[in-house]
Amino acid sequence: MLGPVILAASRSDKMRRFISAAPGTKQVVDRFIAGESVDQVVPVIQDAAAKGLEVTLDVVGEDITTPEQAAAARDAYLELIGRLKELGLGARAEMSVKLSMFGQSLPSPTTALNGEPSGPAPEFPGGHELALANVRPVVEAAAAIGTTVTLDAEDHTTLDSMFAIHEELRKDFPQTGCVIQSYLFRTEADARRLAAAGSRVRLVKGAYKEPASVAYQSKPEIDKAYVRILKTLMLGEGYPMIGSHDPRLIAIGQELARQAGRKLDEYEFQMLYGIRSEEHVRLAAEGHRMRVYTAYGTDWYGYFMRRLAEKPANLLFFGRSVLTK
Ligand code: FDA
């Protein structure tokens, strides 16, 4: 019940200001966000490497409002890749990006200020072209240091554009990954299309508030769809990335990989920084490739609220922390 309310609050500017300023917020945010700057995240990557873990790095931010902010997002990733190169950490760290932060969420440049179309309707609405132009140099720079980028999945209205950008990037950088969400009805078909040689696909349950017209609403249905889709990915020719903390799905993932005859380096597990950390280490110790999605930066509000919505018990911890400050 609380999850959808928290997700609605994640889009509210008023709540953003209130929560960001509340005393005690930082203590809870720190559980999920690995730092505010590249300097703060580097020791986290080094610590993960010492434990045999890989990382995928997310410079938090989304729903930007100007092209300058989109360019700044691109530059933040380029700075990060520069540091990984200097430190020789390229092999351990890949990047995760949200295209909304690269300009996808901006209005279409063919829409005039009065809202009337000023040219032919674009194939994809919004800042699709701008997002592609901003993400390409990041993917290029990542490839130059031997690593790659995965395109996160945001709300369902953005996905046709995300998949088109993914396909475009894969022409030059076939290792570029993307995320699919088991709560969406469309995902089984997407998985069949994506389970092809060389593709890297992270399967997650999905973290946004989606209507019943496009998405399963109950946990059993979302979990069952997850298993069906994971089967497709495991039996396909791509590289499945199992993004979940759910112990049942992790066990099923191991079994499906075994049944599909996959070796340990032919799939991987992924979990979020700050969630079930002991499980990260346990799976790595068993010989699995385990990648920790490590978010950092100052624009943490949307990311943080989705983590609260996933486990409303986090809200109690948050409330207690605010009240005791
Ligand atoms: P589930 O929610 O059933 O949780 C299983 C168990 O994990 C819980 O019982 C609890 O113990 C623990 N847990 C899960 N979430 C927790 C939390 N926030 N706090 C504390 N404990 C928690 N989504 C999306 O829409 N687009 C994306 O691109 C991504 N990317 C992504 C990358 C990676 C690596 C992961 C692991 C997840 C995502 N997600 C995502 C988020 C995903 O859609 C989903 O919301 C969360 O992973 C929670 O679902 P679980 O599969 O963990 O199961």
TrEMBL record:
The pathway entry for this protein reads as: Amino-acid degradation; L-proline degradation into L-glutamate; L-glutamate from L-proline: step 1/2
Keyword Nuclease on entry: no
Give UniProt keywords alphabetically: FAD, Flavoprotein, Nucleotide-binding, Oxidoreductase, Proline metabolism
Q: Which cofactor does it need?
A: FAD
Q: Does the keyword Methyltransferase apply?
A: no
Q: Where is this region: Disordered?
A: 108-127
Catalyses which reaction(s):
L-proline + a quinone = (S)-1-pyrroline-5-carboxylate + a quinol + H(+)
Where is each Proline dehydrogenase domain found?
45-316
Could you tell me the EC number(s) of this protein?
1.5.5.2
- One Pfam annotation reads Pro_dh
Q: Which InterPro entries match?
A: FAD-linked_oxidoreductase-like (IPR029041), PRODH_bac_arc (IPR008219), Proline_DH_dom (IPR002872), Proline_oxidase (IPR015659)
Among PANTHER family, the record links this protein to:
PROLINE DEHYDROGENASE 1, MITOCHONDRIAL, PROLINE OXIDASE
The entry's protein name is proline dehydrogenase
